[in-house]
Amino acid sequence: MSVSVGFIGLGNMGNPMAVNVLKAGFPMSVFDRNPQTMENLVRSGAQAAASAKQVVESAEVVLTSLPGSPEVEEVYLAPGGLVELAKPGSVLVDLSSVLPSTPRKIEPRARARGVHYLEAPVSGGVTGARAATLAIMTGGDGAVLERVRAILRAIGPNIYHVGAAGAGNTVKAINNMMSSVNSLAMMEGMAVGVKAGLDLTMLYEIIKASSGNSNSLAKAPRNLIPRNFEPGFKVALMNKDLETFNTIAKELHVPVSFANVAQRYQQAALAAGLGEQDTSVIYTLIERFAAVAPPRT
């Protein structure tokens, strides 16, 4: 018999991840405060729960995908939260990107109740969530990972055990800092090229075949050229992850520079009311700073 799975938090990332777990054949109950996010999953065979409490009381493994540390700590640690309600022997897996201090708070509380806990932040954005190609960075007991590996494999093939609780989110913060810095360097370069009179598509093709190529360059044909800034990874979330990275660096007394520059761009986008759009929307701010005329539509 398949392991029963619960999924709490069905936003831009959570919904497609839940879809893929359901497709893999795991019986599933789902909950989100926005009932509309459950509709496609219910049509595909999931059971709609009335509350997080109902999910955790019925599932052997519960996955959560929530906005950040405050939400995760409330859902897990508040009176009547997941740690208190979970059945001894069950497994709680948090897919959220949070401060490393959050899983370090949750893991001992869960262990004291005989509940297993694993942090498992993911990378790959909405595109990767839909395609089930996410990278998954787990922190916690390696034996717990083996119990849920088949479930996690439904959302991504690259599953890593990186250490104790907190280590997974440290890796995630480092990755997202590097991704943000790479993307912003690409966008600054593209803006310089356009202001110099070069064609953006031509720039993309040449750099793709040259040493400046990176994963971030794919944003040019996907976002910059078609002016498509629908969220794959939101500005507000990247700002949160850069804040996490800077907090970790500060705690470890590591001087960092590029992360601070990257976060200033995210905060400029937040101030401009662009927090719910894709991080590539920052290109429009760079255009304004550089007095580059946007393409005619």
What does this structure look like?
- The protein has 297 residues and is an alpha/beta fold.
- The chain folds into two domains: 5-165, 3-Layer(aba) Sandwich (Rossmann fold), CATH 3.40.50.720; 170-290, N-(1-d-carboxylethyl)-l-norvaline Dehydrogenase, domain 2 (Orthogonal Bundle).
- The chain is 51% helix and 12% strand.
- It contains 14 helices and nine strands.
- It has helices at 14-23, 39-43, 52-58, 69-77, 82-85, 101-112, 125-131, 142-153, 167-195, 200-208, 219-224, 235-251, 258-271, 282-290; strands spanning 5-8, 28-31, 47-48, 61-64, 91-94, 116-119, 122-123, 135-140, 158-163.
- Strands 1, 2, 3, 4, 5, 6, 7, 8 and 9 form a nine-stranded mixed β-sheet that branches.
- Strand 8, helix 8 (142-153) and strand 9 (158-163) form a beta-alpha-beta unit.
- Helix 9 (167-195) crosses helix 13 (258-271) and helix 9 (167-195) packs parallel to helix 14 (282-290).
- The radius of gyration is 20 Å and the shape is globular.
- The mean pLDDT is 96.
Q: Which descriptors apply to this entry?
A:
Rossmann fold, alpha/beta, nine-stranded mixed beta sheet, 12% strand, 297 residues, N-(1-d-carboxylethyl)-l-norvaline Dehydrogenase, domain 2
Q: Give the proportion of residues in helices.
A: 40-55%
Name of the level-1 CATH class of the largest domain? Alpha Beta
CATH topology of the largest domain: Rossmann fold
Q: Estimate the mean pLDDT confidence.
A: 96
Strand element count: 9
What gap, in angstroms, lies between the N and C termini?
A: 55 Å
Helical segment tally? Answer: 14
User: Could you say which structural class the secondary elements and strand pairing correspond to?
Assistant: alpha/beta
State Rg: 20 Å
| Oligomeric state of shown chains | single chain
- Give the name of the CATH superfamily of the largest domain: NAD(P)-binding Rossmann-like Domain
In the predicted model, the low-confidence regions spanning at least 5 consecutive residues are none
